[in-house]
């Protein structure tokens, strides 16, 4: 998600003023789009050096292992999602940075209200991913209240984007289905057809993040907000895709790890506080999302010389 957010921020603040970082080699288009540096969130001293040398003022902390990958490697998820976050929190506090950390629908669990999940309710997630995200929400808010850290956090729904290959989350199917629809015409879904989850188009997700980061502190009654756009099931998104590609075939082969995770997550998000406090409003519903994704995936495949249905 970081690349698209950096693009949007660079349009507003200037290319040179937004630095992307990762521990992975950037693809050519990312490398040539603006400043890029290697930064491992586990290396506190190096992060500090980057902050000081570049006079950093805002930090957007996206590094994480996502839900399904985290379950497969709990020790690494704990390290990156919790130890890495502690480094970032300490640095933000020490250097007076405005800090954004995304949370997720995965910060809720089977004992949370699911339809809708409000901002403030029981949070007992059953994944290491969710546990680390709740920890992040609480640590950030604690440091805000105790020391005035300008911590801001949005709970993202499943984010649908053409450029980001699915990163091992539970909502990945909703990206993969577009690629399959335009290549083989057949998608094998790892969730049951009626699994409803909150989802959002990536441009809404980025816009929400920037608008929230730009909001004056006095408008924020919370430091962690739900944001919502739509909720759909695999069956519903497939049906919408069939309006464009009638021959799409979907077979269902539920994977027990991801199905159990999805069944513990909210069906819908209540984002009324975000709408009231800082004016959040999504632009994409299911119809717009499907039309845009099919157009973008088609364009991408054509550019890459791949066949398109
Ligand atoms: N994608 C979604 O649908 C979604 C939904 C809710 C919240 N989020 C949150 O948004 C953020 C970004 O998600 P994403 O989908 O882009 O995930 P992703 O898996 O695509 O990207 C995570 C990045 O973290 C990097 N990383 C891993 N270990 C690192 C380390 N030690 N130091 C520095 N970087 C490291 C990886 O190289 C990767 O580029 C995450 O915090 C995630 O929890 C994403």
UniProtKB/TrEMBL annotation:
Report the catalytic activity. L-threonine + NAD(+) = (2S)-2-amino-3-oxobutanoate + NADH + H(+)
One GO biological process this protein is involved in is: L-threonine catabolic process
User: Where along the sequence do coiled-coil regions lie?
Assistant: none
Q: Give every NAD-dependent epimerase/dehydratase domain span.
A: 18-228
Enzyme Commission number? 1.1.1.103
User: Where does the secretion signal sit in this chain?
Assistant: none
Q: What is this protein called?
A: L-threonine 3-dehydrogenase, mitochondrial
Gene transcribed to yield this protein: tdh2
């Amino acid at each position: 998600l970081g690349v698209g957010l950096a693009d949007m921020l660079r349009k507003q603040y200037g290319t040179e003023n937004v630095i992307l970082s990762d521990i992975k080699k950037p693809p050519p288009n990312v490398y040539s789009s603006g400043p890029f540096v290697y930064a491992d969130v586990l290396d506190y001293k190096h992060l500090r050096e980057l902050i000081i040398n570049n006079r950093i003022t805002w930090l957007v902390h996206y590094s994480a292992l996502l839900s399904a990958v985290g379950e497969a490697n709990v020790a690494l998820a704990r390290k990156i999602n919790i130890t890495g976050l502690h480094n970032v929190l300490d640095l933000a506090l020490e250097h007076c940075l405005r800090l954004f950390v995304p949370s997720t629908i995965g910060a809720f669990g089977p004992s949370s209200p699911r339809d809708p999940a409000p901002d403030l309710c029981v949070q007992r997630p059953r994944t290491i991913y969710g546990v680390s995200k709740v920890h992040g929400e609480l640590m950030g808010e604690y440091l805000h209240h105790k020391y005035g850290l300008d911590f801001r956090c949005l709970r993202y729904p499943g984010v649908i984007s053409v450029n980001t290959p699915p990163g091992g989350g539970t909502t990945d199917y909703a990206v993969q289905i577009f690629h399959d629809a335009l290549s083989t015409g057949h998608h094998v879904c790892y969730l049951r057809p009626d699994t409803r989850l909150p989802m959002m188009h990536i441009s809404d997700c980025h816009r929400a993040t920037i608008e929230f980061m730009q909001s004056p502190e006095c408008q924020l009654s919370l430091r962690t907000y739900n944001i919502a756009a739509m909720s759909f099931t695999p069956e519903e998104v497939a049906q919408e895709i069939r309006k464009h590609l009638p021959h799409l075939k979907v077979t269902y082969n539920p994977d027990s790890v991801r199905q159990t995770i999805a069944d513990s997550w909210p069906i819908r998000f209540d984002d009324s506080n975000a709408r009231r406090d800082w004016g959040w409003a999504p632009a994409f519903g299911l119809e717009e999302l499907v039309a845009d994704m099919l157009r973008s995936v088609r364009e991408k495949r054509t550019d890459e010389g791949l066949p398109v249905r």
